[in-house]
Amino acid sequence: MTSVASALQLRRDNGTGSLIGYLPAGFPTLDESVDAAVAIAENGVNVIELGLPYSDPVMDGPVIQQATQKALANGFRLKHGFDAVRAITAQVDVPVLLMTYWNPVVQYGVDRFADDLAAAGGAGLITPDLIPDEAEPWLNASERTGLDRVFLAAPSSTRARLQQAVDSSRGFVYAVSTMGITGARTDVDSAAKSLVARLREVGAQNACVGLGISTADQVREVLEYADGAIVGSALVKALATGGIDSVASVARELSRGTRAPN
Amino acid sequence: MALRDETGPYFGEFGGRFVPESLIAALDELSEAWELAKLDPAFSAELTELHKTYTGRPSLITEVPRFAAHGGGARMILKREDLNHTGSHKINNVLGQALLTKRIGKTRVIAETGAGQHGVATATAAALFGLDCVIYMGEVDTERQALNVARMRLLGAEVVAVKTGSRTLKDAINDAMRDWVTNVDSTNYIFGTVAGPHPFPAMVRDLQKIIGEEAREQVLALTGKLPDAVAACVGGGSNAIGIFHAFLDDADVALYGFEAAGEGAETLRHAATITKGRPGVLHGARSYLLQDEDGQTIESHSISAGLDYPGVGPEHAWLADLGRATYRPVTDAAAMSALRLLSRTEGIIPAIESAHALAGALELGKELGKDATILINLSGRGDKDMETAGRYFDLIDSGAEQS
To answer: Which intervals hold domain Tryptophan synthase beta chain-like PALP (chain B) (predicted)?
Structure first.
């Protein structure tokens, strides 16, 4: 079992789900992004999703766009992403998945990217603009290196496509909670619950829900049916406005949603 | 297989669908609707009627000897897409996609635009068919194409000035895709060029290929033979593929795409994607693009908003790799010079985009000699560019040139 699947399993064995936290590498600086990731891991985040800044992030809303644009303007390079993974995993025992748009991986070289990520101690990749149909080089490279590969499933996906997402993914399947892009929302769409149920029907062991989750109550609600709740913009916003202490405290607050209320 | 028969999703190693899973259902729906529409005589009849009674097709060809005298004396013939309703070739594509929008039962359309030509065409079709319409346009482009912004608003469209990234066409596409992911149930994305995920490159090509089909017949009727070369400007590449397509399997007809070289293809400020870029993934397809070592898109530069794009359609990438079409860079200065030359020798003011094809054809004429015939796609008219041209040639201030 890979480190991500083990982490999800461990939580499930304890009768609860996982909190997955997204932060962009290189924001506000590379060192601070490492410190922020370590801080959320120490405050209840079970799996880290570390975003690689990209010039054209079509799945991201304004909060994450602004953060990643700033990272790029500050001189972020892909190799810094591996440095960050190495520094985070050296400090905390939490699996780190990279979230990256596909072109940077292609330009780095898919095999070279997989090798360097594995060497840095990374757990795998979440690929928001890569569907399994186009993913053969990555399926091969992840098979060879044992890295996790997280593909997305959407409320609009057909049963055949959900099946393909489940069969192609390792670690977990990323269930997109709503039709849209990243960013906090008042309500987590009911579409998420039925999507996870449909994923279970086609054999999903681990299904985690992302997009729009920003409160402990939403985390709790999602974990009633999913294995993990993914939070991004709420953490990035806290980091942008209040620094490491603020992002740590938001993570701690969100993690209350992973425990039964008492 | 004939080159003309390629239907995607792949053109050689290019094309495909590199998009979020959330969009796949909508792309599948569009693909299926388009495949059915292509075979449906009622759809063809409706589109043909619109071409004839609304757009003004077939568009003319015009021979331009006074202009051609400056290009080695080769015979030069313009395909007059500038005479279409809304002033460019963009209307050909938009009417087809608007009809398709009705067929799939959606009530809202979105589009990206650079120069504003595709935005104006989409706003026009939305008005004609009673669809809600939102146009995404980079903030930089809303400033340099203010007249087209006013046109779109007058037609009833909402124009969103995109303030992210380089604030040009590439970022307008990003925001349009974000809108589409969010509103896909009600919304169809009327994509303006032969880039993007499948089915857009093949579908937009199919809707633009009427340019070359008409021109091939018209040139044959005028000269008794096929042209020696066909020239078009290339941003995303829709007008170029539109005029190339009918000639793809005519091995004796050379095809030339002219990319925007901005301040020079050897400088950092250009949009010469095939000349200077390398393969990668942008906006849903694998093709050539301008990018740094890490795969971050590099901002393009061109005096022409419509060519100011760091990507190019996958079919062009394929034709370039096959050697079937040749792609060359044309600088801002050469394009503006050709714009003025056509205006003064023939009384036709071209769009700055199309002026890149004219400048390329002048060089081509010198190479091919006076026995050659060159067909040039005059993809749009220059009215929208008067402010840029006025500034460039100092025509507006008190010191205005009177020659």
So the answer is: 57-380
